[in-house]
């Protein structure tokens, strides 16, 4: 699946394709606000961004490429690459293979940490879990700001 995804982006890099195929379930969605997957409540910020973009952006930027990594149950976001407008590809994480590879590896570590901390009963791990969730929320907010330019 990943080898067929966005050409000219990090998703054309063999290392990234192999990592995605080995460790992730890749889903390539071409969405509109009408057919957004309602069962994935954690994607609400991207649905809102898509609506805002359609209303306020010039025609060439009414869509974007992004990666959103969810937990295995699809209930929580682990990480996001932020906006990847084709007109601003030099700025986007999606188009920088080394940065994108680091991003994916970080997401895998976060997934393992979330599982480990959530299973633990120790106060230290519960504190780490809370800290990691705050870090994820801050990252999502910072990277999604690019959608509202």
Short précis:
This protein has 149 residues and is mainly α. It contains 4 helices and 2 strands; from the N terminus they run ααββαα. The chain has a two-stranded antiparallel ribbon.
Order of helices and strands: HHEEHH
The rough form would be described as: globular
End-to-end separation:
31 Å
* Count of structural domains: 1
Average of per-residue pLDDT values: 82
Percent strand equals under 5%
Annotation, overall tally of beta strands = 2
**Helix run count:** 4
* Helical fraction: 40-55%
Estimated structural class: mainly alpha
List keywords for this structure.
single chain; two-stranded antiparallel ribbon; mainly alpha; disordered N terminus; 149 residues
Characterization of this structure:
By secondary structure, the protein is mainly alpha-helical. 46% of the residues lie in helices and 5% in strands. The protein has helices at residues 14-23, 44-56, 97-119, 123-144; strands spanning 68-70, 77-80. Strands 1-2 form a two-stranded antiparallel sheet. Strand 1 and strand 2 form a beta hairpin. Helix 1 packs parallel to helix 3 (97-119) and helix 3 runs antiparallel to helix 4.
């Amino acid at each position: 699946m990943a080898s067929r995804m966005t050409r000219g982006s990090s998703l054309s890099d063999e290392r990234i394709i192999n990592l995605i195929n080995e460790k992730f379930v890749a889903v390539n969605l071409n969405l509109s606000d009408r057919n957004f997957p309602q069962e994935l409540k954690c994607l609400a910020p991207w649905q809102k961004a898509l609506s805002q973009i359609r209303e306020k952006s010039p025609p060439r930027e009414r869509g974007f490429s992004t990666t959103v990594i969810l937990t295995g149950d699809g209930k929580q976001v682990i990480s996001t690459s932020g906006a990847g407008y084709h007109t601003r590809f030099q700025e986007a994480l999606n188009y920088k293979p080394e940065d994108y590879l680091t991003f994916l590896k970080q997401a895998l570590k976060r997934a393992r940490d979330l599982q480990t901390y959530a299973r633990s009963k120790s106060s230290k791990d519960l504190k780490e879990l809370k800290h990691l969730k705050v870090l994820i929320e801050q990252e999502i907010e910072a990277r999604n700001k690019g959608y509202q330019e």
